[in-house]
Amino acid sequence: MAQCVQSVQELIPDSFVPCVAALCSDEAERLTRLNHLSFAELLKPFSRLTSEVHMRDPNNQLHIIKNLKIAVSNIITQPPQPGAIRKLLNDVVSGSQPAEGLVANVITAGDYDLNISATTPWFESYRETFLQSMPASDHEFLNHYLACMLVASSNEVEPMEQFSKLSQEQHRIQHNNDYSYPKWFIPNTLKYYVLLHDVSAGDEQRAESIYEEMKQKYGTQGCYLLKINSRTSNRASDEQIPDPWSQYLQKSSIQNQESYEDGPCTITSNKNSDSNLLSLDGLDNEVKVDGLPNNFRAHPLQLDQSSDPSNSIDGPDHVKSASSLHETKKANTGIIHGACLTLTDHDRIRQFIQEFTFRGLLPHIEKTIRQLNDQLISRKGLSRSLFSATKKWFSGSKVPEKSINELKNTSGLLYPPEAPELQIRKMADLCFLVQHYDLAYSCYHTAKKDFLNDQAMLYAAGALEMAAVSAFLQPGAPRPYPAHYMDTAIQTYRDICKNMVLAERCVLLSAEILKSQSKYSEAAALLIRLTSEQSTWKGMDSDLRSALLLEQAAHCFINMKSPMVRKYAFHMILAGHRFSKAGQKKHALRCYCQAMQVYKGKGWSLAEDHINFTIGRQSYTLRQLDNAVSAFRHILINESKQSAVQQGAFLREYLYVYKNVSQLSPDGPLPQLPLPYINSSATRVFFGHDRRPADGEKQAATHVSLDQEYDSESSQQWRELEEQVVAVVNKGIIPSSFYPTQYCLNSYSDNSRFPLAVVEEPITVEVAFRNPLKVPLLLTDLSLLWKFQPKDFSGKDNEEVKELITGEPEMIGTEVISEFLINSEESKVARLKLFPHHIGELHILGVVYNLGTIQGSMTVDGIGALPGCHTGKHSLSMSVRGRQDLEIQGPRLNNTKEEKTSIKYGPDRRLDPIITEEMPLLEVFFIHFPTGLLCGEIRKAYVEFVNVSKCPLTALKVVSKRPEFFTFGGNTAVLTPLSPSASENCSAYKTVVTDSTSVCTALISSASSVDFGIGIGSQPEVIPVPLPDTVLLPGASVQLPMWLRGPDEEGVHEINFLFYYESVKKQPKIRHRILRHTAVICTSRSLNVRATVCRSNSLEDEEGRGGNMLVFVDVENTNTSEAGVKEFHIVQVSSSSKHWKLQNSVNLTENKEAKLASREKGKFCFKAVRCKEKEAAVQSSERYTFADIIFGNEQIISSASPCADFFYRSLSSELKKPQAQLSLHTEKHSIEDAVRLIQKCSEVDLNIIILWKAYVVEDSKQLILEGQHHVILRTIGKEAFSYPQKQELPEMELLKFFRPENTAVSSRPSVDQLSNLIKTSLHYPESFNHPFHQKSLCLVPVTLLLSNCSKADVDVIVDLRHKTTSPEALEIHGSFTWLGQTQYKLQLKSQEIHSLQLKACFVHTGVYNLGTPRVFAKLSDQVTVFETSQQNSMPALIIINNM
Description:
It is a single chain. With 1443 residues, the protein is of the alpha+beta class. The protein is 29% helix and 27% strand. The strands form 14 sheets. Strands 14, 27, 29, 31, 33, 36, 41, 43, 45, 47 and 48 form an 11-stranded antiparallel beta sheet that branches. Strand 37 (1051-1063) and strand 38 form a beta hairpin. Helix 17 (483-496) packs antiparallel against helix 18 and helix 20 (540-558) packs antiparallel against helix 21 (565-581).
């Protein structure tokens, strides 16, 4: 239980005090009424004695009474009505609320920190009022009147006669059978005569003389002269006198009116005829009977039995309406009590009470106890039971332990008033009232046994109850508290006697006692036992009682040694529920709020929902609308596990409450709505128009749109492309002010600076909504909320703030979505547009909308609408207008030390665009753009550029990472006329018809790479778009041809184009604009080409200097005919090089047409020669010679667009690839030079272009596709491919744990490279006839030609001696020898050709290999480094015949 102001040792004596009746004459009552008090009320603040009191017990022992209090009350002859008591208790509880600003106790239990109000004043007020408003009953005498004060005024005409009348009236009330109420303790009631004297108006002499007369008649012990009203009431304003009555009477003006102020819902008790509202004060309503003031005739409830602050209600039953209660309350607020009393009067009243108690009441009680004791002793056998009571108690008499159920139901048994059992009970009660607990316990114990023997259960229960309390209160605690007595009493009251009021009193007392002994668990069990719903105990009083007891039980659980937090919370909820049923809304709300602390955030979502819902409802009833809204908001925003129906109910309730709140302040700021959820960080902002859909063959550039997913890799690629083109435009330097263009801002983009938007171009904000509920939400009139600050260039800044878009949209146009439906548990994005019409600063604040839900059954004109059809005719059940702000947290900062050690976030400015001046706007359309190509296929398409803005644009460029994929044609494109046959076939190439005679010999042309945009130091990726006049005017459009070539790898290719353009008029904020396009091309396999080049040994073409080469080309058709390709025709093979050209085709077969069906291979051999020196001299370093070898009757001019374009582009992309550079020693430059010279001998720069046609059947039509493949030959003897080679991963090696000795890489050239220094060839007759019978030795002249391939001098050694390695070798060139010198040493100058005349000698006929001379070569100036390298000569066979 909660802490109490009083300890239980103070509480019980204060609850059971001697009761004194007061009977006043009319005049006496009038004197007290001058102070706005009745006589009983006048005495109330002074009713506790300030000093100890002594009295003697029957054994003549002195007994001390401390803090004695007496209860004086007016006589009321009607017992209080249960309904009125209920009404009073209800008001007492509702009137006592936690004090404002009360500091609650913080209890820490486990991981709970709870704020709990330590005291419960409403419970204490209830308990006090309950104990004091208990009607007197026949089975106990604790609240029966012991004495009666008879009060008359000194102003009476005949005061002594008045006293006699009052005395007769009292006697009549006590002894006449007409009055069963009030109850009197003993027939001989003490009468105490009080003469009231008004000091300010009365005659003091007369008063004294009357008092003397009284003393003569009634004795000095039986009368008193009380002087009051020492000042007149009109002087009341001069000095402030304390008002001790207000604390007792403030609750009397019915215990707090708040329940009535909330509206006309006056709480009345359940269906009882006696549920009348109490009269507040019946000051002017006294009724005269027999000339006596009978203000005790008809009042339904008399509570003046003690000093309880809430009971001073006198006067007849006066039914008032709620409105009259209001008036009375207002009237009562200004009343000053005791206005005519001085502090001296206060002391006189205090003295009067002392005198009355000392002289009158206590001697009377002492005498009565003695009389009763004597009577009991004189009765035979009773003394024995009285004095042996203690012994019996310890010997364990079994009577009380009898099961209650075994006893006969004799609760209806009544004893006559003079029955000895009742005399014992009377004596016990008297001892209890004067705090003589030992004697009281003995008497109760004895009486209990007698009652149980007689099976008078009501009497027995009363004795058990008071015996237990007496045992507890005995000084020195000679025996433990007999809790089982209380349990038996409660069970008896409840189950047998059906008297719930007495059962409740037992529970209240016992629980307090158990609490004082820290037996919280037992106390809680006791309290809970009485709260169960009983058929005997229903209605509002039951609910109030249960609520209070459950709350106390909850406090027991939390006050235990180890607090039981969840039990506390659970019982608080139960208490809150019962408070609610009892109409105590504020207490109900408080209980739920206290319990919420325990359930909050522990994952008990259904419990949380229930509590929040109840808090919301109660707060709404109490007109605490903000709290109600907050509670309902919690139900909706937490991930609810409720059913859809329940969630719908919650939502409707919430909307209803919200609507009421918003109606209170219709012009106030819009409320923040909790639904739907907005994922602020997922908000995306898009600047620009929506992309146009494809229109037939026209396909708009993909650009940027909100439908595209963010991809960090691709955004990085776009950024690099933009940087590349900006660098080219700014002569290779990216300006410091450059910032990548961002059309779409999201959580991944860099939002640290204010984005730039262009006036008259829409801004789209995509807001990500999520509906967490299982019921659909309907948002209507959804739009953005913004603030705009126009910037005038006149210099004046006039801030114009538009909160809501009700204003004229001349600054910013706002799109409104009339209906936006979010289904249950759905995430959905809304795209909201703004149209800026003015330059300035825009701030997008949030969204504004009406939140509602769809009615369950939508019926239109009696016809049920189809479920789920979003026709825009949703019937809203209810909606509220509100807003949600878009607040985006920027990225966490992590640069400086300070930022790393603290949590700081940067700004996110995506919702704060700056609106800038007009800019041109480009739209690009692709016409006949393919989606699928063969590898290497060439296709012609068209691009249309449209300027849709009001500004001209210029400097249009396109940049791509794959420049080899497309071309707009070089400068030569215009020069070459289209042949008629080419236009017939719609060929992408420029062709010329040739006569068949020139076939297989090369047709030469030349072109410069500069014409095709591939110059020295140029960026091949950045391609200027050849606009006519380089400017595109507003509204103008231009179409340009664009050739495409399928990438060499098969698969899906994403190719990014970035179009860059500027405004003719330079803008300070935006320098340029971009447009993106991503083309997706799917390529399928076509041809694989591989080629090698090797030196020709023939030296026919002497003037060629450096000789000829053979080019071998293998072409394989790898197409698996998935594209419907029937066959490929190789129509032309071209070469392109600065130094070499193809001369003719060394065709091995007579097959003129080179056709390749699926999976077929073709082999071609071509002779290549060096270009003429003069040709090479005339050409600049960037000029290439093209040679075409044609296999058909049409020459494709390979040096023109588009063939040359793609060749140059593939060449430039090839050059960009990293070359395998030898890491060179830095010791000697000469070594490096030497190596370089040696390498150069084996290098060749010859590029082969294979042009082909493919015949495709598609939809029973034959199409001809054309294309080209490139092979770049760099090294003699090394195979080159047209398609990229897959790098094979090296096999895993074991780890080696030692240091390599020599880390320097050897700079020796490879054997292959060294062998290419010298080219050798033998000239001799293929067959030689010799008459061996004439001459046995056959001599054959042989010329050995040595050609220096390098640009340096070379020392050559020719060794003719046979190298005898193995017998097999000997057999091959067995019996022939070289005659003459066996070794020659020569020096060959740069590119010199030297011939040696040799003679071979044969002795037999046969076939001989003359290729035995070994040639060693080294660079002349290199002495030590490379010794020599052997040139392996080719086999040279000669046939020797005999003739």
